[in-house]
Amino acid sequence: MAMAVANCCFSVVTSTVKFRCCLSSQRYLATSQHSIASVTCKAVVNRRGSPREHKEGVSHKKSPGKPKDRRSSLHDEDEDGISGKRNAQKSQPMAFKSSGAQRKDKKEFKFDMKEQQFEQQNLKDAAFLDAVVKVYCTHTEPDYSLPWQKQRQYTSTGSAFMIGNGKLLTNAHCVEYYTQVKVKKRGDDTKYIAKVLARGVDCDIALLSVESEEFWEGAEPLEFGHLPRLQDSVTVVGYPLGGDTISVTKGVVSRIEVTSYAHGSSDLLGIQIDAAINPGNSGGPAFNDQGECIGVAFQVYRSEEVENIGYVIPTTVVSHFLNDYERNEKYTGFPSLGVMLQKLENPALRACLKVQSNEGVLVRRVEPTSDANRVLKEGDVIVSFDDVHVGCEGTVPFRSNERIAFRYLISQKFAGDVAELGIIRAGSFMKVQAVLNPRVHLVPYHVDGGQPSYLIIAGLVFTPLSEPLIEEECEGSIGLKLLAKSRYSLARFKGEQIVILSQVLANEVNFGYEDMSNQQVLKLNGTQIKNIHHLAHLVDSCKNRYLVFRV
C-alpha cells in the first residue's frame, strides 16, 4: 500500500472535475493481493446456518454474504456427495447373516462362499470410494463496492479425490477466496490442512496437496479413463447435502459437446449426464463401469422445464490442466484464437465472399490483443484449422459420425502453441500461422489475486470495472452506457482497464460531488487513463495546480 499526502481544491466544469494540488492531500493505492483458490462446482455453503445455492456453484454451509446473480443458467455445485446406497452398505446385512449362521450342511456352506465373494467385491468397492474425500473451506470474499475491506467469512463443503503424488483434484469454485482448506477421508474423524497448488478458473479445476503422511496411509489414487460414449453408465460420488457420509448416484451419458462453464465463463468440452448432482458434489469424481474416473462433477442446469441435467468435466480437460501445470510450474489457462466468428450457412453470403464450397466460418471481429490480429482480417473465412476442415456451421469432425464446435480444436492447444489456419481472402486461398494465448478481458470475470485494486484521492474512490463489481452494484446502478461497453468492447492492449469513479466519500474537500458514482474516468489532465496503476502514476507525477478528471 502506497500513501501520499496532498491538499486538493475542487471545481467542476460540465463533466470535468478539477482538483487543486498543494502537496498535502491523502492518496491510498492498494494493489491486488495474490491468493489461490480451488473449488468444486457443487459446494455446500453455510451462511447464518441456512444453506443456499449460487448460480456459479452450490455451497454447503455459508456465513452471511451477498448473493451473486449470474447471467448463465448453469449452476456450479460445491459438494461432492450423492444420494444413494453404497455396495458396502448393502453387504452389511448379508455379512451379519452369515456370521450368525451356525448350520454346517452343504447348502449352508455354499451360501457362505457366495457371501465371501460378495464381501470381497465390496472391499474392492470400498477402496474405490476411499479415494474420495470431503473438502471443508473457509472463504473470505472481497467487497468490490468497498475494496479496502473484505466481507464476513463463511464456510462451505465440497468434494475432492486423490490422483497420486500427494495431490488431490477438486473444483476451483470450491476454494474461491479461500483462507483455509481442510480435507477429511472417508471413515476418518481427523481433518487435515490442504494447500492449494493451482487453480484454473476457466476450467473450474483446482489442485490441492496434503503434506501429512498419515493422511496418505493406505491411499490408492484413482485412475483416469477415456472419454465415454453416449449411453455409457456413469456413477457420481461425493458429499452432497442430505447427510455427512459419502453418497453415490448413477445415470448415463446423455451428451458430449462444447459446454459453457458457468464459473469460468468459458466454453470447453463437457459431459452431460442424468445422474443426480447436488450441492456438495462439486469436485467429486464420476466413474465408468470399469472403475475409472471419467471426469469431475461441477455444475447442473436448473430450470422448471428440465430435470436431471448435470455436467462433468471430462478427463481431456483435466489432463490439459495438469499438463499445463507440470509444463509451467503454474497454471496459465486455455488459449484463445481471439476472433469473433459467424456461420456461413447462407448461400448468398458464401457467394459474396467468393467461397465456392460449403465450408468455413466468417471472421467478424479480431481482438487487438491477440496474435491473430497480425494475420487475420475482418471478412476472412477460416476453412481449416491444422488441416482439419471447418464446416459452414462452425463444426469439425469428432470421433465417428459426430461433429463438435470448432472451439474444441482450439481448446486442445496450450498457451504459446502455433496453429495453422487455412483461410479464403477475397476469393484466394492461403495459409497463415497464429500463436494462441489466453484471452485478454477488458472487464475480467475474476480478479487476479482475488483482491481488487483501488485508489482514493481526496475522498474520490477509483477502481477497475469487473464483473464481480457489476454483480455487487447491480446492473441498473452501473448505467447502460458503461454496461454496454463492458459487454461488447475489446481491450486495445494488454493491461487496459476501465477505471471508474465508484463513489465519493463525503467531505468538505469534495463538496458538491457526493452524487457522483459508477462513472468511467477517461482522462486526467488531458492524458488518457490506461489502468488504475497508470492513474496512480499520473497523480504522483502531477505538477499542475489542479487535478482535472474527465468523466
Summarize the structure.
The chain has 551 residues and is of the alpha+beta class.
What does this entry look like structurally?
Keywords: Hydrolase, Protease, Serine protease. This is PROTEASE DO-LIKE 2 CHLOROPLASTIC. InterPro entries: DEGP_PDZ, DEGP_PDZ_sf, PDZ_sf, Peptidase_S1_PA, Peptidase_S1_PA_chymotrypsin, Peptidase_S1C. The chain has 551 residues and is an alpha+beta fold. It is built from 9 helices and 36 strands. Strands 5, 6, 7, 9, 10, 11, 12, 13, 14 and 15 form a 10-stranded mixed beta sheet that branches. The chain has a 6-stranded antiparallel beta sheet with strand order 1-4-30-31-32-33, with helices on one face. A hairpin with a 2-residue loop joins β2 (8-13) and β3.
Structural features:
serine-type endopeptidase activity; 551 residues; disordered N terminus; 10-stranded mixed sheet; hydrolase; PROTEASE DO-LIKE 2 CHLOROPLASTIC; alpha+beta
Give the terminus-to-terminus CA distance: 26 Å
Please give the share of residues in helix: 10-25%
Number of helices: 9
| Poorly predicted spans | 1-42, 47-124
Q: Determine Rg (CA atoms, Å).
A: 27 Å
Mean pLDDT, to the nearest integer, reads: 80
Report the principal-axis shape.
Answer: globular
The assigned structural class equals alpha+beta
Number of strands: 36
Strand content: 25-35%
Main β-sheet: number of strands, strand sense, barrel status? Answer: 10 strands, mixed
Organism: Salix purpurea
Keywords: Hydrolase, Protease, Serine protease
Protein name: PROTEASE DO-LIKE 2 CHLOROPLASTIC
GO molecular function: serine-type endopeptidase activity
